[in-house]
Amino acid sequence: MHPDISHLLDISAAQHSHLCPRQVLGVRIGLAGVETLQAATAGRPLRLLVIMETDGCLVDGVTAATGCAVGKRSLRVEDYGKIAATFVDMESEQAVRVTPRLDVRQRAFAYAPGERRHYFAQLTGYQVMPDQELLSIQPVRLVRSVAEIMSRAGVRVNCACCGEEIINEREVAQEGRTLCQPCAWGGYYTPTQGVNAPVARIAMPSRRPVPVAGNGAAQRAMQR
Ligand SMILES: [Zn+2]
Ligand SMILES: [Zn+2]
């Protein structure tokens, strides 16, 4: 049986209104990632960087297990929409990618005796399944170096198009000009009005009545 992780689950759940299977997976993935790297670096203290492949509950589990967070620049999200995380020792650049095995939802039932509901079987099973049954762990190499990913404090340039400041060497050179990425190749937004224009009032459509069965079952179904 895996060591007791209930204190880590408490930390994770405190960030939420609930404890869910994704958070349990996050804690287990985080612990396994650190443990594997720690073994590979012969116990030398890790300078850990975590790259998550989705946002949401999984991240809170990983943060509870590792202490890594976006605000500390020790956790990043590459949103592939996948339940996976890569753990990097920033010193040696050794890295391992950890994912749940493909059949864990079914396997969880064997570790939750008498439980027939998927959600609760996962919630219980994921806490106690041995690492070998729960997780796949693969050594990987980062495409960009840690130095490139982290950049340096204090470097800044201004975009030749929008004029905004760019930190961490995220600028791009295009036809001899230094540009921010949105100006160079488009970003996640398009302006609808000029800078400092008043924000238009939005008429909200009237709320639809809450369905009678909306007591968390729908939410849980979404998370599976
Ligand atoms: Zn959740
Ligand atoms: Zn720009």
Would you kindly provide a written description of the structure presented here, covering whatever features stand out?
With 224 residues, the protein is α+β, with helices and mostly antiparallel strands. It has two domains: 6-148, 60s Ribosomal Protein L30, Chain: A (2-Layer Sandwich), CATH 3.30.1330; 151-185, Wheat Germ Agglutinin (Isolectin 2), domain 1 (2-Layer Sandwich), CATH 3.30.60. It has helices at 6-14, 21-40, 57-66, 104-107, 118-128, 131-134, 146-150, 181-185, 217-223; strands at residues 48-52, 75-77, 85-89, 95-100, 135-140, 156-158, 165-167, 172-174, 177-179. The strands form three sheets. A five-stranded mixed β-sheet has the order 2-1-3-4-5. It has a two-stranded antiparallel sheet with strand order 6-7. A two-stranded antiparallel ribbon has the order 8-9. Strand 3 (85-89) and strand 4 (95-100) form a beta hairpin. The mean pLDDT is 91. It binds zinc ion (2 copies). Residues 16, 18, 20, 22-23, 57, 223 line the site of one zinc ion.
